Records
---
Amino acid sequence: MPSPPAILLLLPPGSPPDAGNRVTAERWARLLREAGAEVEIAETWDGRPPDLAVALHARKSAPELERLRAACPGTPVVVALTGTDLYGDLPGGDGAALRSLQAADRIVALHPGAEGFLPEELRDRVRVVLQSAEAPEPRPLPDPERFPVCVLSHLRPVKDPLRPAEAARYLPPESRIEILHAGAPLDPELAERARAETRDNPRYHWLGPLPRGQALRLLGASRALVLPSLSEGGANVLSEAAVRRVPILASRIPSSLALLGEDHPGWFESGDTLGLAALLRRLEEDPFLEDALQRSSEGLARRVRPAAERRAWEGLLGELLPDRRP
């Protein structure tokens, strides 16, 4: 029997503990270990030759990948695409991001259709791996006196994190909606705006960064999740909301469209404050919309089970390490 393959998961340098890339890497490490592999998560390569390297973020992982490729040219490499890669660096002509993808044996995308944003010669290397989520305990019954809506998003411009706060200002006085926003202050200007909004807007509360478990409890206790991002590689928070049957209100961006489908009833256009305000009000008033959104979440939940994500990785191991497959 072959020894377990040694897999190196490379994170972008300086990844915060609860940032999406690190959460994704830790989940992949767990699934790969369940599949029989030995996995190390690191931001820099220590020089020990792995059997397989998986890098999150084409541009930010480029220096470590170049070191590894030069020293271990026979080591298979997988590059996982982030939203910054797909919708920022690659369209902007970033050379480091493109070199990482050209050197990759396989490219992991987090939503269907991502290959269409890549140069044609790279598209046959793409494998879609949907981000999974564990089904939690049943949600608590809602408090009829409150209508909490959560935003789980770090404060970065690409996340458009204060759009829900601005939309809440257009709700009528009788509305019960309150926006509860958990996320780290990664952009100082946005952090200052969030503090001011919390002070001046009675419907908005920035809670700061929360531990992952606490953030997921907030999600489970909410009547809806708002994902206002301008771009995403494939937001795992959609999977987390789906397995909890939490209604999802999302900006109409390619990755979310690919995951939820065109007929999802919770779309608003990116940056459309009034459109989001109207959607929030409809959700509060119309139980049929809430039911439709919950059914849409259930549809996504069936596609993001951990077993499916593990099978996707097992398939990749079979392609790249046929003699070392666990």
---
Amino acid sequence: MKTGKRAAALALALCLLLAGCGSKSGTSGPTKVVLIAKSTQTEFWKSVFAGAKAAASEYNVELTIAGPETEEDFAAQNDYIDLAVAGGAAALVFSAISYDENAPAIDRAAAAGVKVVVIDSDVHSNGVAARIGTDNVDAGRKAAEAALQAREGELVVGLINYDLGSRNGQEREAGVREVFSGESRVKGIYGINVLAEQEDARLKTLDLLQRHPEINALIAFNEPTSVGAALAVDELELNGLVSLVGFDSNVRTVDLMQTGAVSALVVQNPYAMGYLGVETACSLLGGVIYDPNALIDTSTRVVRRENMFDLESQKTMFSFH
């Protein structure tokens, strides 16, 4: 985000965080919880917000949602964290863009007495009181197994991952590589990192496929990279020739599953992440203690063309928002 736009956005955020602000838990006024996401643009995050809003309504919480425009701007997230603390937030529900770079701001929030719940993407901080999301290593294993099931014979695989600083993307790739390391059918792996943006993923996937025409399987690790990779496969008319396993659901990837550009989607439960994030924050403020090293797993489902119209698959791909 350009400096002027970012300054304006943060100024607006400060007004929102301070206007009508309730006090910390235990005093008059509604309990204030701030959800700071990695982005506000994708279907994944819109579903997270829907779950969070439902929980906020149920638990009578004053919920504020903030996040940068792109999943690379950890500095903006840090500013939002500091603003939330200054605005009297009792709890943060947070998804880290950077495992390390977001840690000092979370440490400051916890030191100020704010309860911190991590959802989706972890942060390297002892100030986190509870962790909610996907078992990302296991999700990576599922993606690798789906890629093996998508075609017969030898595989040469391209991995389309995003920011190296993001914990969940790296854990997913670790799970993929774990499965492939013991699989004789896999004859080569080419990995790239892209911006967590559809267009950057499309362009870099096109380049990867043109430089390595031997690739016949792709795995992309989140929603925007999956959309971009699927569009690249479709653009090169490689539907059926290159199998793609993506993450999360998006109208484009679901449509392209029907054409063969997408072989499978490892779909998370973002609605549950948002709902449980706010619910857990309220429990922490009520004195409940969680083991911060134990993940509250929101599970994943592998959706393929063969089962995409099943009721459970439809509910997973199109959670209410």
---
Amino acid sequence: MSSWVSGLAGRFIVFDGIDGSGKSTQLRRLVSACTEDGVRVCQVREPGGTTVGERIREILLDRTQEGMTLRCEMLLYMASRVQLVEEKIRPALDRRELVLADRFVSSTLAYQGSAGGISRDDILAVARVAIGPTWPDLVVIFDVDPASASRRTKGVERGKGRGVRPAGSSLFDDRIEQRGDAYQAKVRQGFLEQAAADPDRYLLIDGTAPEDDVWEALVKGLRARFARS
């Protein structure tokens, strides 16, 4: 077993970034590498990942829910997160599995915080109630500018991109994605600010690089933090 892979057992790692950043592709590659090396993986997504969470996801991404307030939106994300932590994440960590999450509190800080205007303190206060001590060991941010991300997602929608979105992923132009590039630019800046403020807990990767180069940067970062001597 590779030392950097074996060091991931019992860890909680989040992949985050704006839609089209390539995080889902890299998450699949990491799951494959861990499975081949014998590390058990619990893969979850947000919002969703549980029966309750998937119902909440339907509401959050429904384009007809135009009247939803920003604080209601934030609290629904946290409600889905509570169920996910208690039903999936904590039990998996207790079993010494690697937990890989597609989004977590970092997304709420970026989308409803930096881009939406809810204060960081308010979001973190709710998060502490929602998840208790279950915070990620590492948050990996795949950084891509909104224009490049938009070209990627539109290319995939037409069947001309790098691949097909995973089954069950959010629909194109869902309620959040409809907010446009200016909103996404604020979201991106929010992610960058999080990474700059806490470099020990965050790993920032250039998501505009070729897929294999992104993978190499990810492996390098994971090895530096978790490889067993």
---
Amino acid sequence: MTHGPESAAHPVGRRAVLLGTAGFLLGAAGCTSAVPGPEPTASGASASGTAGALPRTTPWRPTSAEVHPEVKRRAVELVEAIGAWPGGRGGASAARARVTALHLPAALVARAGPLLPSADEAALQVVDAQYGGFLADSASVLVVCRQWTRHGGAVHAGGTTVDVRLARSGTGWTVTALHPAHPGAPLSPPPAGVRRVLDDARIVLPPAARADLNSGQVHAGVLTAMLRLAGTYRMYVSVVRSGHPLDVFGTSRPSDHPRGRAFDVWQIDGHAVVDPATPRPLVERFMRDAAAAGSYNVGGPVLPSGGSTPDQFFSDATHHDHVHIGFGA
């Protein structure tokens, strides 16, 4: 069990603005977006090929109301540069050129993993960018994305989550490392509890999170809580197990996420957690319901009173943009 909040960051001083709806919006800067096109399979792997062009995507950009917009912008720009390219511009060499154009280290491409598959061309849509940790001079940004690749006339759908590490450099921020998700091989067939979560339309999972569930490495308490919360809310999950820092950022304490004992939610009933316009009572009620569903450690942009233990609820800069829901062994 991880004792204490899933962060070593300081309390939040201001909150970011993110426009969100029950669906995803296109064409609005600072919005997370999704686009039409083939969906990833339940395993999180590429779907079978379908004929057609790649879907239209839009850049994901933070707004000026973020805790630190530059941090997320740098992380997302790098992922977009590596994971999308026009016909004839695939491969590591072309990706290094795109990264260099951002004034970031070209050597980062060598750690891109599933973000840089072999394909004739690729389109990438960032679904969400949330903090995995935020300190004065270092940060982790978890970039959740869907990706479409074309091989000849067939389009395949997939995606991943990338833990992008950054450090303050002079007056700006630079990327120091990439850690793409590695969910593990899927079980066939998936456990019954996993299947119920995957089939619930009120639980929206990005590719890496779906693959986490299919790997059979997610704690039963997580599955039960997801289903229980889905009875009241439509929730968009950002991260479950893979693509998250192994330790609580800035500490040597193991995080609950890599052990399959936590999940994060970035949108509730069409309202982005990060958006100041989102009703705070909604977020607080969701956090309380998560605790009632068995979570011992619930973090978010608000700090509910009470709790069965002194640290059952917490709030800090890292969790201004999502709700963390953790479970014990």
